[in-house]
Amino acid sequence: QKEVEQNSGPLSVPEGAIASLNCTYSDRGSQSFFWYRQYSGKSPELIMFIYSNGDKEDGRFTAQLNKASQYVSLLIRDSQPSDSATYLCAVLVSGGSYIPTFGRGTSLIVHP
Amino acid sequence: DGGITQSPKYLFRKEGQNVTLSCEQNLNHDAMYWYRQDPGQGLRLIYYSQIVNDFQKGDIAEGYSVSREKKESFPLTVTSAQKNPTAFYLCASSGQGGTQYFGPGTRLLVL
User: Fold this and answer.
1) CB distance from A92 to chain B under 8 Å?
2) Which of A10, A103, B42, B43 is the most exposed place for a label (fewest CB within 10 A)?
3) Residue B1 confidence (pLDDT)
4) CB-neighbour burial class of residue A68 (10 A; exposed 0-12, middle 13-18, buried 19+)
């Protein structure tokens, strides 16, 4: 059974700090990894995706993938109160049915 | 503007009533999905469709039905058999790469 694990949090960081969100997955056939942000009462919004080992940067966000250790991380630099949300990790297995497995999400609170 | 629309934003269901949630996309995506999200919980897959006129049950399909007569549309019916329908319903679509994009959601409440 495919599993995607995230610490539910809340993760609390001060404004301006780096927030580090982690996600582990069980299926070694996983090939595509996605991070979504979900504000309270709203739908998930895609932040970024990563396919290859290493880092991928987009503005204040960096996704880090380590397939050997089966984890993917999201770093948010210069965290702002507007970054306070739940962050969902999703994992897709290649050659499968294109049904991603979602983690339950990590709640992030950025306090002024 | 390309995107996914869901309507209505809020829906109230009476006991024994069937209700239909609308989902439309103009992203030219082949695949569409319905999820249910309960407070503090993750996303649970109800149904998905990878091509017109074909759809598959997800993890919690009981009490729900769908149709996929057009590429752009994937309506979800919550039937009276669904005893605990109060939840936030999310529709998503994906193209060839598998990246899912979500609509704004419909919140279903029981009167």
Assistant:
1) yes
2) A10
3) 63
4) exposed
- 3-class SS at A90? strand
- Joined together, the tokens standing for residue A10 give 């809340």
Nearest to B88 by CA among B44, B57, B51, B55: B44
pLDDT of residue B15: 86
pLDDT in tens, B8-62: 999 999 988 999 999 999 999 999 999 999 988 889 999 999 999 999 999 999 9
Q: What rounded mean pLDDT belongs to chain A?
A: 94
Nearest to A46 by CA among A36, A61, A32, A33: A36
Taking only the tens place, the pLDDT of each residue in A85-101 is 999 999 998 766 778 99
Q: What's the gap in Å between the CA of B41 and the closest CA on chain A?
A: 6
**CA atoms of A23 and A5, how far apart (whole Å):** 6
Task: Tell me, yes or no, if A90 comes closer than 8 A to chain B by beta carbon.
Answer: yes
- Residue A11 burial (CB < 10 Å; 0-12/13-18/19+)? middle
